[in-house]
Amino acid sequence: DKKKEIIIRSIQVIKMRLLSQTIKSSMAIAARLSARNRITLNNRMGVIRHVHIEKRLSDLGIELPPLGTPKGSYALTSRQGNLLYLAGHLPMPTDGKLMVGKVGDTISPEDAAIAAKWCALNIISTLKAELGDLDNVVKIHKLVGFVNCVDGFDAQPKVINGASDTMFEIFGDAGRHARSAVGTNALPLNVPVEIEAIVEFKG
Amino acid sequence: DKKKEIIIRSIQVIKMRLLSQTIKSSMAIAARLSARNRITLNNRMGVIRHVHIEKRLSDLGIELPPLGTPKGSYALTSRQGNLLYLAGHLPMPTDGKLMVGKVGDTISPEDAAIAAKWCALNIISTLKAELGDLDNVVKIHKLVGFVNCVDGFDAQPKVINGASDTMFEIFGDAGRHARSAVGTNALPLNVPVEIEAIVEFKG
Amino acid sequence: DKKKEIIIRSIQVIKMRLLSQTIKSSMAIAARLSARNRITLNNRMGVIRHVHIEKRLSDLGIELPPLGTPKGSYALTSRQGNLLYLAGHLPMPTDGKLMVGKVGDTISPEDAAIAAKWCALNIISTLKAELGDLDNVVKIHKLVGFVNCVDGFDAQPKVINGASDTMFEIFGDAGRHARSAVGTNALPLNVPVEIEAIVEFKG
């Protein structure tokens, strides 16, 4: 009958809609599972990368200096979203004796480049303390390096390379940063180099 | 009959789906109302906090200097999302007479620290003009302080503390910033201190 | 009959729901089409703006210098979201001969302002290489200009105006930036000016 036909059609429509909803639900569940797998995968990769960076530090024979203390009434870092603003860091080696001197007068450019390396390592000590794990470093975006030097000294880039090379060696591509290197006639505590940084991290 | 049963079932399925949709709509409306309440609550909290900061300024006996004017063809601020980049600010007290001098020559470190305080207060005047209400300041993330000084002067941190302490006193934890303090042989208009800032705000 | 009535109602409900779904689908398609139109419109506006900026450059008689090379082991830029951190740029004119000198000694403030303009144009060359199209520049947020000068020189703002004016001329309001201008006793390769930038772009 026509009546019967109408009922059958209406039920077919309902079945199709239920089927369609079931498919949607299944896809949603699949998507959620896939996301969970991604997270698990990321965690696994995190562990692998962690071992990698810590291993790289020891492979390079690098011992991080102890965490520095602010030389005034400020903080070593400030977090804005996934961005970390870092204070100007000074060249404190692991022995705790701050490097001092003015390039072209009481310290050579070569030794100032070593000072720049220590600034970078102090930045990395701060990152480790702040982020817990150096594998949370996503990108070293920016360094500004100030070189305490005599008038006429013009090789600030070579000095600050001591820091830039260190970032590349340790973090690889994540250590590739934009940079300014400038001279100055005077720095805090008569250090030869002061370096500040902007770093992106993952939560 | 079987026919009747089928019809009843199909109608039950339709009713259930309509009910499910009604529940979803109700939840959506509830979520929207809840969001509205949150906004109202935030506004109320904003009012309370506003009273607090303005009161703190008067409790500290601080009168903000008049809004500065750019010393060149630039702007005092630039907004990027919830971030505000601030130009280098100079030490202009409320009397409008710019502080001048080179530390170690024509101005003492103590007076330069006062100049640094005025730089901070000029930054705060700019923030008030830009944000309308100082309670919209979420965080002072970064200061860079340049100290005009003779060769060999090495107490730039003490000078810039004049600004950092001011930020802490006024904004509390929201005033805790990362910082660089460096020397320089020359600054605009022969000021002893110039300070720039990066500040997060809420819309 | 009652039976017949029930069937008719249930079918009406199904029809209404199908109609409702059809309307939703239509609206979704309309939204998608509208979005596509917006994109097309943006592209068209992009082309118009592109012509505009490129035309403005040629109207101003400006030829961009060739893309610079980093003077050390760093990158010219680093991307963080829609933000671009740019390295300190030097005053390299189109002839490839780097401008040198110390203001107040071997170069005049007027020539140093021309050097600042070349720094800005080198920044723009980097932006073009990095973003493909200068119309992707959303905002020049921040410049920091370092002026290599003798002690007592106090017109750094006038020197750095050479860069700021260039940004305004080329980008209009998108070129309005916050700025710091400071002196220094020494810069890389003895240039009179070094300028770094923070720029927002669209993907």
TrEMBL record, chains A, B, C:
It comes from the Eukaryota. SUPFAM superfamilies: YjgF-like. Pfam families: YjgF_endoribonc. Signal peptide: none annotated. Residues 54-191 form the Endoribonuclease L-PSP/chorismate mutase-like domain. This is Endoribonuclease L-PSP/chorismate mutase-like domain-containing protein.
